[in-house]
Amino acid sequence: MTSTAASDFHAQPAAAALRAAFGGSPISSPALVTGGLSGARLFRFEAEGRPWLLRLEGPRDAFRDPHRWHVCMRLAAEAGIAPPVRYADAQSGVCIMGFVEGGALAEGYSGSRPAMIAAAGDLVRRLHGTPAFPPLVDYMDGMAAVIAQLAATGLLAPAALQAELAGYDALEHAYRGLAPELVSSHNDLNPRNILSDGRRLWLVDWESSFLADRYVDLASLANWFTADEGELSLLTEAYFGRASGPAEAARLFLARQVNHVFYGVMFLTGVAAERPGLSVQPPAGLADLAEIHRAIGEGRFQLDPWEGRLAYGFARLREARINLASPLFAEAIRLAI
């Protein structure tokens, strides 16, 4: 661990949090935990005979506000969905929670793939049954904000961005016509935010959580973790406790396209923040999203380098364009409304 990271752990406000949480109990030397994309600094350490994670909040904005998401995290922890919270102070942006020994869902789960998908669906069903999270914003208004943020970066010329978002206006109009089914929603169920300790699953990284439509989380699980209709059925049956009906399947189809656009835009915006002044053209000959997901699972495609995240963002946007141009889109609108 670098001297800068070590000083962050031992200086205020982390030191005050450790004293408040553990008093004079011995604390092991910290280890910096890497791999997240949130901008927070994470440290694993041991105290009282077990591992803990200390999180130092990164840059804040309207979405990354610990005054809101600490509430969501505590509610999830009380429901046994998130690791137990030992300390959380929204003002300082420091929290201490149990450390999950294991790994991301696809790496650490010891059961079969069908069992893993069903477990993820059941976990999100339990999350959506917890007491209501604080509200933040209408989800589609939030989508408009993140798209505007990407446009402001200049990463893509206006005409190129418009082409990448072909069909989105019709999707937004259709989705806004549906009454949202508001639940306690994580809103960022990517593979790094679902952990397995070898026995069960945990959700982490709650900075994007707020009250939102249930299909936001379902769409994220479907897009990240299911490879075909059979796996999608496993997911929805675990979530609903039965086979989904035509209207539910149609709503999920629409939500999956919103989710593709969300992750496409967020990955591209993240690259623009990391590479100020970068201007790109949409790549030609990009592998389809299913192949990229297989390559990620096999270690042949990395999301950590900015080039990988750039390619992944474009792949997500292309997947949405393909689906929105297909007859499935009009049929989904007919069935969902």
> Spans of 5+ residues with little confidence (pLDDT < 50)?
none
Query: What is the chain-wise order of helices and strands?
Result: HHEEEHEEEHHHHHEEEEHHHHHH
Largest sheet, spatial ordering of strands:
1-2-3-5-4
Query: What is the averaged pLDDT score?
Result: 93
Count of DSSP E strands? 10
Provide keyphrases for this structure.
337 residues, globular, five-stranded antiparallel β-sheet, 13% strand, 51% helix, single chain
Describe the model:
It is built from 14 helices and 10 strands. It is of the alpha+beta class and 337 residues long. The strands form 3 sheets. The chain has a 5-stranded antiparallel beta sheet with strand order 1-2-3-5-4, with helices on both faces. Strands 6-8-9 form a 3-stranded antiparallel beta sheet. A two-stranded antiparallel ribbon has the order 7-10. β8 and β9 form a beta hairpin. α8 packs across α11, α9 packs across α11 and α11 crosses α14. The longest helix has 29 residues. The radius of gyration is 20 Å and the shape is globular.
